[in-house]
Specification:
The structure is a single chain. This protein is of the alpha+beta class. It has one domain (7-244): Creatinase/methionine aminopeptidase superfamily (Creatine Amidinohydrolase, Alpha-Beta Complex), CATH 3.90.230. The protein has helices spanning 7-28, 37-50, 117-135, 143-155, and strands spanning 54-55, 68-71, 74-76, 90-99, 102-111, 160-161, 167-169, 176-180, 197-205, 211-213, 220-222, 228-238, 241-244. The strands form 3 sheets. Strands 6, 7, 8, 9, 12 and 13 form a 6-stranded antiparallel beta sheet that branches. A hairpin with a 6-residue loop joins strand 7 (167-169) and strand 8 (176-180). Helix 1 runs antiparallel to helix 2 and helix 3 (117-135) runs antiparallel to helix 4. The chain is globular and about 45 Å long.
Amino acid sequence: MIYVKSADEITGMRNACRIVAEVLKETGKNVQPGITTKELESIADKKIKSFGAKSAFLGYRGYPGIICTSVNEVVIHGIPSSQKLKNGDIIGLDVGVLYNGFCGDTAKTFAVGKISDSAEKLLNISELSLKKGLESCSADRRIGDIGSAIQATVEKNGFSVVRDFVGHGIGRNLHEDPQIPNYGKAGSGVRIPENCCLAIEVMINEGTWQVKILDDNWTAVTSDNKLSAHFEHTVLVKREGVEILTVC
């Protein structure tokens, strides 16, 4: 069941999402060649704590990190480590916070120094596909409308959408109904109610859509070791469209 938020709950979501947006912004400013993903996690941790918030990821289903740091072929759930970023890498930063009982979730893929034209295209199309997905979401539309818009944007540009992981509802829990695939048929799926909150996230691969999980049981990588990009916003669904909550 898709949970419709009350006015007080919407206020709580706005607060949590503003914080998570600030954390992503601050962490992203520090992406540069030579920094480790663990150091980026420490920056995020300090910023999260400065707001009196907590990581929504640490310990969630056993996840060992405060944020997710997904480099190059890593699709999602990259665990922060001593890995140093290199010029030409891309890194997806996925941040979730819990603040006063509400969750905020957002992600963005950043360029590390100067990246290739093909990597830049992947990032641009991935971000565009999220924009198209958000534009296809409003009260009384259907979940399939979102995925259809994302898939069309991605595939006409020669990339692929990951099938194994999806967007989701969000609120007092990090993951709530409904699931939001990045593919599908317009007009299909459940109807979206007004005043629900959704974490719409695109995971776009340079090559095949297929992924595999590494031995740590978390890190998802592309099956062909080509690049992957990840962008996400938490939104409030309204009659006329969406309000993006993860902005600052």
